[in-house]
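Good morning C.,

I know you're traveling, so I'll keep this short. The sequence:
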Amino acid sequence: MRAWIGGLGLAALVLTTGPALAHPHVWVTAREGVIFDGQGRIAAIRGAWVFDDMYSAFATQGLGKDGQLATKEDLAPLAKTNVDSLAEFDFFTFAKLSGAKVEFGAPTDYSLEERPDKLIVLTFTLPLKEPTNPGKAFTFQVYDPTYFVAFSLDDKLPVELVGAPKGCSASVLGADPLDATATQKLSEAFFANLSPGSDFGMKLASRIFVACP
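The tokens, ready to paste straight into the viewer:
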């Protein structure tokens, strides 16, 4: 995790804020695009992740000229570092078809950009290793299993179908909130003791369903 986080300067951010900072440490608002090929198969998922203001400020510190926004060229080295490091975490993107795990290939067309509101956006395309007909059973979630990074889907446009055949649709099922007992157990010690195979973040993640005739 820290290899990816360090690429955007967050490790230093955590150190400067000290123990008052509790999980999660980073907030991301995600907009996901499901890209279809000419044969009506799902070929890729394209993420556009908007980072919170504190994270964004740290990532762009010292970049840009004369008060201007940081350019894609300024942020290109950070984009590569982060996309390369995200491979270790399956790009925080987990898909299934009829209950079986969907495998992804290497990401393409990635970039970091600073918006006029000073928030940074990481975009990248994650191709499926084998394009697939979604039928009625293609689902995916975007989450950090350890909840170091908290993902939420964009309120206005959480998912978009690109090039989808007629009749295809997407829906979002929100996660169930934690009950009072589970919430009381949350602490930095709790998160520090999560095993590498933890699925805690999955419990808090919305699920996207894609269905086609």
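Safe travels,
E.
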